[in-house]
UniProtKB/TrEMBL annotation:
Protein name in UniProt: Dehydrogenase
NCBIfam families, A to Z: antibiot_sagB
Ranges where the Nitroreductase domain occurs: 161-342
Highest taxon above the source species: Bacteria
Classification of source organism: Bacteria, Pseudomonadati, Pseudomonadota, Alphaproteobacteria, Hyphomicrobiales
Transmembrane segments: none
PANTHER family given in the database record: NITROREDUCTASE MJ1384-RELATED
Length: 347
């Protein structure tokens, strides 16, 4: 068996000592100067005999226990392990550097927080800091221009004003036409254009460089005309393909948020960041991909509103579970945003 230090470790000094974080596994641990020296000494694959030379003061049992502990905390990688495969995939596919990777991978699979826990945090923040301003006013400024009223007679803005997130759904199936409209509104491709190099899709929402980084997967519980299961939406063909008979609880896909189980289906937006990486090597493009999820989500929500439905968005996802269910293997492919579709229960 051979070992080497992990290549996805980031270190920082918290004032008293160095702390290490493996951003692929989210493991965080204290890192003494001796451990730093050791990790540097085993940067390449080393067998146990070579590692024994780096730790002459350890008994055989102590060395085995230490190696196992360092592998458990993702400081060391064992040859042939899952972590080695993940690091290799990261090296091959991720092109936006460590800072963007640190953000992207460390916020995945958030711990579940109940509604009561979330409200307790808000009460604590209010008690500590008071209420924070949620909008800014022009009142009191010298040069202020009042704008004309806009809702009267404007059907688009009236529709937008009706949009609300209502996280309790009726036991009522969604129709295929309603689902079709929501998917097309968010991701539909309306044509193509060609630049100096390639042909690009023109879609219903703006996309940086027309790279079209999102795919949609629909987790169906109750859609008239569709069997329960998981479907992939082809925006170019405007079609659905069933990829799995699995029917997980929708709440399990969104970090345990119970309200999701009252909804008949869920659209999960999966970013294929390599499409954007192909053109943009600047890590700032990561931000662009995240912003595009909002463009798509807003169109889906407006389409649902026009049908008297509610589309409830959330970014609190069970990334690993979703990835396994839809077969994601590339670390540059990741669930980013989810929206349930359903009819609001006003009770």
């Amino acid at each position: 068996m051979r070992y080497r230090s992990s290549r996805t470790l980031v270190f920082h000094n918290d004032g008293d000592e160095f702390v290490a974080c493996n951003f692929l596994t989210k493991a965080v641990f204290e890192c003494s100067p001796d451990l730093l020296d050791f990790l540097g000494a085993v940067a390449d694959w080393s067998d146990r005999a070579a590692i024994r030379e780096q730790a002459p003061g350890y008994s055989e049992d102590e060395l085995d226990e230490t190696l196992a502990a360092l592998a458990e905390m993702s400081a060391l990688v064992v040859e042939g392990s899952n972590l080695e495969m993940r690091e290799d995939a990261f090296r091959r596919h991720w092109k936006w550097g460590v800072p963007a990777a640190l953000m992207h991978f460390c916020v995945q699979d958030p711990e579940y927080m109940s509604l009561n826990e979330a409200e307790d945090l808000q009460r604590a923040a209010f008690a500590s800091d008071g209420e924070i301003e949620l909008y800014s006013l022009n009142s009191g400024r010298v040069d202020v221009t009042a704008l004309p009223e806009v809702l009267s007679g404007n059907s688009l803005l009236q529709l937008m004003a009706k949009r609300r997130t209502q996280r309790k759904g009726l036991a009522k199936a969604v129709s295929v036409p309603a689902l079709s409209e929501a998917l097309f509104a968010g991701l539909g491709i309306t044509g193509t254009a060609r630049n100096a190099v390639v042909t690009l899709p023109l879609s219903m929402t703006p996309s940086g460089g027309a790279r079209n980084p999102y795919e949609a997967y629909i987790f169906v519980k109750a859609v008239d005309g569709l069997a329960p299961g998981i479907y992939h939406y082809s925006a170019f063909e405007h079609s659905l393909a069933k990829i799995s008979d699995a029917s997980p609880l929708l709440a399990d896909l969104v970090g345990g948020q119970e309200w999701a189980d009252t909804m008949p289906c869920m659209i999960v937006l999966v970013a294929h960041m390599d499409r954007t990486m192909w053109k943009y090597s600047d890590p700032n493009a990561y931000r662009v991909v995240m912003i595009e999820a909002g463009h798509i989500g807003q169109n889906i929500m407006l389409s649902a509103t026009a049908r008297g439905m509610t589309a409830c968005p959330t970014a609190a996802l069970s990334h690993t579970m979703i990835g396994e269910l839809i077969g994601l293997r590339n670390p540059a492919h990741a669930p980013i945003y989810a929206l349930t579709l359903g009819f609001p229960d006003a009770t």
